[in-house]
Amino acid sequence: MTTDVPVSPVQPWQKNRLSPLAEPRLPEPAQLYSLITLTLRLHAAALTGLACRWCGEDWPCPDVRLAWRLREGF
Which domain of life does the protein's organism represent (predicted)? Predict the structure, then answer.
């Protein structure tokens, strides 16, 4: 004895519309260059002397020196 059961049509694969959109990842060199630029902007020399505005050490501070060496590596 067979019973005919209505079958719903097969739906094509659909992307889950409720999932959050993933941001495309930046390549690593672009991320590194952005961090170098941010470091050089934050660790600038103060107008009232040769001290770093961000960390207060003598300018150029070790962070600026490292960022500059990395920038020169590009």
Answer: Bacteria
Locate 3 and state its tokens. 């019973």
* Dist. CA 58–CA 60, nearest whole Å: 6
C-alpha to C-alpha distance for 59 and 8, rounded to whole angstroms: 72
- Kindly state the average pLDDT of the residues 7-17: 60
d(CA 43, CA 35): 12
pLDDT for 39-50, tens place per residue?
Answer: 999 998 887 778
State CA 48 to chain mean position distance.
33
Give the closest residue to 41 by CA, choosing from 70, 74, 72, 64: 64
**Of the candidates 50, 72, 73, 74, the residue with the CA atom closest to the CA atom of residue 60:** 50
Residue with tokens 């500059």: 68
